[in-house]
Amino acid sequence: MSNWLVHGNAVLSGTVSAQGSKNAALPVLAAALLVEEPVTLLNCPVIRDTENMLRILESLGCTVTREGNALIVDSRTADRFVLPTVLSGELRSSIFLLGSVLSRFGEADAPYPGGCEIGNRPIDLHLEGLRCLHAEIEEHGGRIRCKGALSGAVVDLDYPSVGATENIMLAACRAKGQTTIRNAACEPEIVDLQNFLCACGFRVRGAGTPSITVDGISHGHGTTYRIMPDRIAAGTYLVGAAITGGDVTVTGMQPGAVDTLLYKLAACGCDVAQTADSVRVRRTGRARGIAFTETRPYPGFPTDLQPQLFSLLSVSDGTSALIENVFESRFRHAQELRRMGAKNRILDRTAIITGVERLHGAQVTAHDLRGGAALVLAALAAEGDTEILRAERIERGYERMDSVIGRLGGSIARKENSIGKEEKTR
Ligand code: EPZ
Q1: How far is it, in rounded angstroms, from Cα 9 to Cα 332?
Q2: How does pLDDT run across 192-230, given as a tens digit for each residue?
Q3: Which tens digits make up the pLDDT trace of 246-271?
């Protein structure tokens, strides 16, 4: 476990480049199993979740090597279809592997996935989708056993689940015949997965729309592919400018990647500006609250930026309502913010936030990845220092956040639990 000491009264200013997208890299890594040739990935983020996924791929027999900032995954040596319990239990996205392992080996055996404490994270849509592709699935003793030769079908998703859409895409690539996924999720990360699959020679089209079609083929081929930038990590640092009254530019962005966030930051009184590949946010006066914000599947306001906006609204003028429509318990950061002097009440999926002038430092806990990031933002803007426990949860999705914040003028010291020695990063 790791604790971070975040120094308050920061004003984040400067320019950073977007890291590679966690939520694009994870399904792409799972897709590497579909081709029996090496794939080379560029811009794959070095974070706990991708490292865990690489360990899982190695446990299945894949060879993983790094050459500079290129990651090479070679699944020619893959020969096992049983996913390891501990690693898969830690990683929600291990469930993506069901589709690709089943497609590659005709069998898959996985534990129920773990992940953030933001809801019960069922996988019924994943399993229903695989059953539509004629997989035989048994759930027994906390494990899922799948087998069978997959053949194409029409899959109607009750909910536009990102993971279920990706899992079915992966299973359909080498299935016999055509698969159509209706009510598919439209997130940009799904478009990135389609682009990777097409670069491997698979026939996938429609990603980014609610209808995705896959024409199954017997084999794909290796490729070199650059993972898209991480819109959520970028958005996090842009909220950092808003909450600390700073001026941050993030480069290496896809056009329009954070439009819904920028709309909200402008409503808070920030100056926002975009070029073809960069976004800038600057705040001068006091931030204004926003009456209503609702999270929705893409292109709605992203649930993965809800905690970060929550922190900003906690120090914005007036009362704001935040409604979390995607996950059933994604407000665990609220109680931690209250320890810092924030005023909020949670009524089921609705947060009522009354902005205060200033938060103060405290000892708080990161209960999940994005909630932990939200606490970092609040701590940077607060009066005094804040200790964040379980900061390893933040490292699941942010590449060296302490160094990025250091480059923007903030300061995060890693506290070593054992002897309490501080290692300052700049
Ligand atoms: C992906 O999770 C992302 N993770 C999440 O990011 C993101 O918040 C989420 O999509 C929504 O955008 C990765 O891509 C690795 P869902 P996923 O399936 O696939 C319900 C982060 O912080 N549901 O779209 O798990 C589910 O309970 C993480 O980077 C079912 O009911 O999200 C939830 O309420 C957090 N049955 C809703 O759908 C299922 O079979 C959305 O889940 C699957 C999901």
Answers
A1: 24
A2: 999 999 999 999 999 999 999 999 999 999 999 999 999
A3: 999 999 999 999 999 999 999 999 99
Residues 199 and 54 in one domain: yes
- Cβ proximity of 77 and 62 under 8 Å: yes
Q: How many domains does the chain have?
A: 2
Are 208 and 134 found together in one domain?
yes
Index of the ligand 1 atom closest to the CA of residue 298: 12
- Residue 30 three-state SS: helix
CA 92 – ligand 1 centroid, Å: 9
Flag whether the pTM goes above 0.90: yes
Identify the CATH number of the domain in which residue 349 sits.
Answer: 3.65.10.10
Distance CA 402, CA 396 (A): 13
Same domain? For 322 and 206 the reply is no
Written as six digits, the tokens of 402 are: 């302490």
Distance 118 CA to ligand 1 centre (A): 10
Q: What percent of the chain has pLDDT over 70?
A: 96
**Domain identity same for 221 and 252:** no
For 400, the domain range is 3-19+229-425
Measure 93 CA to ligand 1 centroid, in angstroms. 9
Q: Answer whether 397 contacts ligand 1 (Cβ < 6 A).
A: yes
What pLDDT does residue 86 have?
77
